[in-house]
Amino acid sequence: MEKVVERFLRYAIVDTQSDESSTSAPSTEKQYNLAKMLVKELKEIGLKDIDLDGNGYVMGILPARIDNVQTVGFIAHMDTSPDFTGKNVKPQIVRNYDGKDIVLNSRENIILSPDDFPELKNYLGQDLITTDGTTLLGADDKAGIAEIITAMEYLVQHPEIPHGGIKVCFTPDEEIGRGANHFDVEKFGADFAFTMDGGEIGELEFENFNAAMATISIRGRNVHPGTAKNKMINSIHLAHELASMLPYWERPEHTENYEGFYHLIDFHGDVENTTLRYLVRDHDMERFKSKKQLIQKCIDHINTKYNGTHVTLEIKDQYYNMKKKIEPVKYVIDIAKSAMQDAGISPIIRPIRGGTDGARLSYMGLPTPNLFTGGHNYHGRYEFIPVQSMIKAVEVIVNTAVRVAEK
User: Fold this and answer.
1) What pLDDT digit, counting tens, does each position of 40-56 carry?
2) Which of 224, 215, 221, 272 is nearest to 242 (CA)?
3) Mean pLDDT throughout 83-97?
4) What's the whole-model pTM score?
5) What CATH class is the domain 210-319?
6) Where in the chain is the domain with CATH 3.40.630.10?
7) Which CATH class for the 2-207+321-406 domain?
C-alpha cells in the first residue's frame, strides 16, 4: 500500500501534459522528466534491459523464471490530458471517507460531492486521493505506472512466484492519440499485453470506438451589412445550419454504452471563414461509416442550397475497434478475468467509450486489452482514485503474470 501510493503521489506532481499542436515526439520535452525518473526506478527494483529511446518510450524486462510460456506486457502512458492543467498538482488524501462532501478547495468553494458523483458512495471507509480543486490529478495514467512498477517490484522480491517473461512500457502522448506512433512492437517482444488505463475497479475492456476527426471548413462572403441583401454569405450561419442537421440525440451528452456520437469540439470563425471540428465515434464499423457519410451529405446539401462550394470536409480515421483483433485470442480475456477473480474482484466487462494505446497496438500485431487503474472523473478537477483500488490493481497484475505462466 505505501509503495504504490508513494509512487503515485511522486509521479502526479510532475507536469507531463502533452500538446496536440506540437509536431515533436514526444510532443512536450517535459515528459522526459518523468521518463528519466522511471528509468532510474526500474533499475533500482531490478528490471533488465531498460531503455529510454529518442521518442520518449521507456521499456524494461523482468526475465522469465520458467520456460516455454508466453511473454506478457504491461503498458501505461506518462502524459496527462492537454484539456485541463496538470501543472502544480497538489494531491490530497482523504482518510476513511465518510460519504459526505469533500472540500477540495475552500478558498474557491470547489466541492467533490456524492450528489454530483454518486460513485463516491461505493468507497465508504476507504482512503481517496483527490485534487486540490485547481488541477487534474493525473491518475490517467500515472496510477497505471505506479501499479505496474509496484507489481514488478513485488515479483522481483518474491522469487518463489512462477512467471514467464514480462515486458513493461511507458509511452508518451497517449492523450493526443500518438501513444502508439513510435511504439516498436518487435522490440517490445511480448505475445500480448494489457494497458493499465481503465477506470473503476474491475473494468476489463476489449472493445473501443472506431474513431475519426472531421474538420469542416466554411467559406463565406463578407459584404457591408448595409448593402448585403442577396450578396452576403455568413459562414457562421452556414456553420450553425450544418451543425443543426446532425442528429442532436447522437451527441455525447445523450449517448451511452454502444451508442456512438458526433462531438463538436471546436467552433471558431467570422463572417468570411468558419471552422468546425467533430469527433466521430461508433463501436460498429458500418454505423461508423454511415456517420461519416452523413456529414458529407449535409455538406453537399449546404453547397447545393447556397449555389457554390462553400463547405469542404477533411476527415481522418484515428483508430479502430480492437475487438476484431482480440476475438481470435480471446484467451487473454479469460486470463484477465481469472486474475481479477483471484483477487476477489468481479470483472466489469464493458466497451470503452474512447480509445487507448491498446486499440492501435492491437492493429499493429500486439493484442492489448485494457485493465482498470481505479480512477474516476479523469481529465478534470473532480478526479479521484481510491487507494484500495490501486492496491487491487497491483494484485491483478501479479495474478495475471501467474495465470500466464499456468497457461
Assistant:
1) 999 999 999 999 999 99
2) 215
3) 96
4) 0.91
5) alpha beta
6) 2-207+321-406
7) alpha beta
